[in-house]
Amino acid sequence: MQHRIKKVAVLGSGVMGSGIACHFANIGLDVLLLDIVPFNLSDEEKKDPVKRNSQAVSALATAIKSKPAPLFKKDFASHITTGNFDDDFEKIGDCDWIIEVVIERLDIKQQIFEKVDKYRKAGSLVTSNTSGIPIKMLAEGRSEDFQKHFCGTHFFNPPRYLRLFEVIPHEGTDQGVVDFFMHYGDVYLGKQTVLCKDTPGFIGNRIGVMSGVQMMDLTVKYDMTIEEVDAITGSLIGRPNTATYRLQDLVGIDTSAKVSGFVMENVSDDEYIESVKGKKQPEFMAHLLDQKWFGNKSGQGFYKKTKERDEKGKSIIHALNLKTLEYAPATRPRLPIGKAKMIDDMGQRMKTIVGGDDRESKFLREYYAGLIAYSANRVPEIADDLYSIDDAMRTGYFWEYGPFETWDQIGLAEGIKMIEETGSKVAGWVSEMQKAGHDSFYKVEGGKRLYYDQASKGYKPVPSLENYIILDTLRENAPIIKNDSATVHDLGDGVMCVEFTSKSNSIDDAIGQAISDAIDKAEEEGWAGIVIGNNAKNFTVGANLMNVGMMAMQQQFTELDALIDGFQQLNMKIKTCKVPVVVATQGYVFGGGCEIAMHADAGVYAAESYIGLVEVGVGLIPGGGGTKELALRASDKFFEGDVMMPTLIDAFQTIATAKVSTSASEAFDYGYLIEGKDFVEMNLQRNIGEAKRKVLELSREYVAPSIREDITVLGRAGLAALYTAINEFKLGKYISEYDGVVARHVANILCGGELTQTTLVSEQYLLDLEREAFLSLLGNQKTLERIQYTLQNNKPLRN
């Protein structure tokens, strides 16, 4: 049976329920969000529908206001209708997918599913978001049709941002239902779908609990402070900066304790869990739980934010001393192991880290020995394939590398040696794998990433990657073009891909040269077209600010003029060349990267693309055609007899306030993206593949755009309105005096300069104004101060 999802019911409006409801609203589905009728209503209030629905209404309102935002755009909340279990339960009969997200109690969930079974329509899908209660227990006693269409679908919090989507069938789940969820989670929800077995904690929480418990045990064993542990378990090893103890505070120490307790109580035949079950809880954990110091939500946990301020005006953070159980100002440990962060190659970095003799290296060596041993011994108990564990930990916990990927970095033999040193058990299938002459869990052959399959004792393609274009798998082929900052790949079917490879993917001359050379080659040799994209965390952070700042400080204005003109002409070349150019983005799409994207024929933007022309923050204006493009797009919205000023003001505010979209969807509102030209892709791993398809579609009857000569600008009339707005902002102290100087340059370009009447101008005319303004600002000491401050502090200066 084919399932079509038009309406979803979410039962339970807590943090997870509201977040899940918002994520379905993000993809345009109608959502029914239900919760209990509050217990404390008066007799009169019990008659009021608003009061009866207040649990769900209040929870949704809280979710919408929360940060990070659960919705791509706030008005997407209109897709969500709230109600209550008593009055509105029968409405689930109109829903195609019903998701239970109530409290983690088996009896309450069973009561909910009894009602679901009564009111659902035949064939509708029913799932539980339980984080560990056995799915088979939740399915017991339900109708045959219910059981066939029931399984676990476990989102991680926050649902919009954490990509892991665990699918947990029970014995009675129809295979077609399982296949549907694996596909739907990937394509429509943008998730990394992972098939799990119905075991306590599934995959993410099972490995996560072991990892967290071991971190605490090693903290005590090696007599380390929480600041020291966090210093070595964050970005140094490819994990979020929340590291270990800051993460506990973020998640909630009570929540972590409940999840750990559940896994400990319900797991059997697990050598590690059995070894720690009898151990006494660390005194500091018991203390925090007794005091109800649960972390961020209670104001203190392992860390405590105080009202005190340092010399820079920042809140002073205190850290818990694990011995005295008292708080003291948090320190920033300078540890020898920190130097390993200078090693860009993660494989070499990990070898260095676990091979050191210092205390911190020994800590991490023992930690990783335990992690990789535990993970290997869970195959095939919790998952049939090792890649499922890696996928779960990367996308559920924001680890850059999963356990087996890390083991490959360390080396198979070294990892086995580490495990044996700690007295842990090496999984039998790993020993067999080594004896058979294999030395890695993953390898690339024929453009495919392969994993070692312990069941067949050989390598197979990672199935979760079959529909994605992963540029790393193409590196065994000779690139079409390669320099220090970019590589041009052959994607097949006559499509090239320009991949940025500079630090933070910052745009420099080498990237510009690679794009230009790729266009020349495509035009000369008859290629179908070009994708500009990469698989990095961020598409690009923008232009190489340090390079521009150094040239300005050395007053190399002739060279700067040529640099700016070169970037402008590169973007015009992208726009007017004889082959289609499509961008594929994710993460930051800032400054010059935004300008490249705006000049492409089309864009495939991962939903989590944060797009903006941010130059005014460093005292500059968008000088690569970005200001020109917003002027052009404003002009295209002008209609004869219409009031043009509001459209102009919108474009001005977008640049002058350095607006950055919080999603690709929001970028349409700012004019960075255009309906019909640009598209949102939910799954960031699909954007390059979709961009390639768009190139092929456009190439069939492609006609290169001409340079525009018909851009309407308002001249002095527009300038008068914008200058008035700037002065009002200054009087209200919303902007500094120098912000006003930069804003006047933006206004001048958008209005076409001091023209006496509304006039039609060309793209080059506006580019010349851009370049003149950019150079003028680079000659101003206040801009140089802003550039220098931003480079040193990674935040803007308001001088």
From TrEMBL:
- The residue range of the signal peptide is none
* InterPro entries per the UniProt record, alphabetical: 3-OHacyl-CoA_DH_NAD-bd (IPR006176), 3HC_DH_C (IPR006108), 6-PGluconate_DH-like_C_sf (IPR008927), ClpP/crotonase-like_dom_sf (IPR029045), Enoyl-CoA_hydra/iso (IPR001753), NAD(P)-bd_dom_sf (IPR036291)
One Gene Ontology molecular-function label: (3S)-3-hydroxyacyl-CoA dehydrogenase (NAD+) activity
UniProt superkingdom: Bacteria
Keywords of this entry? Fatty acid metabolism, Lipid degradation, Lipid metabolism, NAD, Oxidoreductase
Q: In which pathway does it act?
A: Lipid metabolism; fatty acid beta-oxidation
- For this protein, what reaction is catalysed? a (3S)-3-hydroxyacyl-CoA + NAD(+) = a 3-oxoacyl-CoA + NADH + H(+)
One biological process term in Gene Ontology: fatty acid beta-oxidation
Pfam families on file: 3HCDH, 3HCDH_N, ECH_1
Gene3D superfamilies in alphabetical order: 1.10.1040.50, 2-enoyl-CoA Hydratase, Chain A, domain 1, NAD(P)-binding Rossmann-like Domain
Q: Say if the entry is tagged with keyword Cell wall biogenesis/degradation.
A: no
Question: What are the residue boundaries of the 3-hydroxyacyl-CoA dehydrogenase NAD binding domain, all occurrences included?
Answer: 7-199
The 3-hydroxyacyl-CoA dehydrogenase C-terminal domain, residue ranges = 201-304
Q: Which PROSITE patterns match?
A: PROKAR_LIPOPROTEIN
Q: What is this protein called?
A: 3-hydroxyacyl-CoA dehydrogenase/enoyl-CoA hydratase family protein
| Species per Swiss-Prot/TrEMBL record | Neolewinella aurantiaca
| Lineage start | Bacteria, Pseudomonadati, Bacteroidota, Saprospiria, Saprospirales
Keyword Chloroplast annotated: no
